[in-house]
Amino acid sequence: MLVAFKCAGRPINVLYGTHPGVGNGALNNYTFCLYCSKPKSPRTHHCRTCGMCVLDMDHHCPFIGNCVGAGNHKNFIAFLISAVISTIYASAMCVYSLIHIMPPLENGAAYASNVAHGDTLSVLRAVKNITIAYIANAVLFSVRGLVLVYLFVASVSVAIGLSVLLWQQLSYIYEGKTYLSHLSSQGREEDGEKSCRNLLTFFGCPHSIERHLPTIRNLRKRHKT
């Protein structure tokens, strides 16, 4: 609810116009948004879907119907973590239920004995026979069993996709970037700082913890051609 309905991060309205009203150097590093017709601060991007400029915009997520920016980025990470845990739990419950409703495997004890005491060829043959037997028993599945199989495949697929997205998001936070700033910095050699402090600062952890963490500086040498 928070990530979907909370404001993604509206930038502060900056006074602009004549030089006495603005002040010398007040709009350094600012650009002008043609859609909003006002100055746009650094790391601010205009979202055409939402029709507004978003501070520290990461991306516009169609699944929540909202942008991900400075105002709700932490909520988005919490949403991804909870969704990954939920899909993993759903997959485990599907497997648990399938084991209990699956028809009993014929000659299961004999297959288990071959796996425990046989050589490699016997083990492979036993695994093959067990797989074929389970596939044959799957024909006898009830509607409930087929629904559980579908839910298991869907839960695993969603869990994998969300885990990749979560890892990508945490990687960008570790680098002190957003997805859009990462795209804008591609192809340019810049000095960057990768640090666990970026993660602690993002999640609002105490500064006393940050002092005990190492900082990895990513310094790239520029070669002149």
Automatic annotation (TrEMBL):
GO terms for molecular function: protein-cysteine S-palmitoyltransferase activity. One of its GO terms (cellular component) is endomembrane system. Its EC number is 2.3.1.225. Its main location: membrane. Belongs to the DHHC palmitoyltransferase family. The DHHC domain is required for palmitoyltransferase activity. This is S-acyltransferase. It comes from Arabis nemorensis.
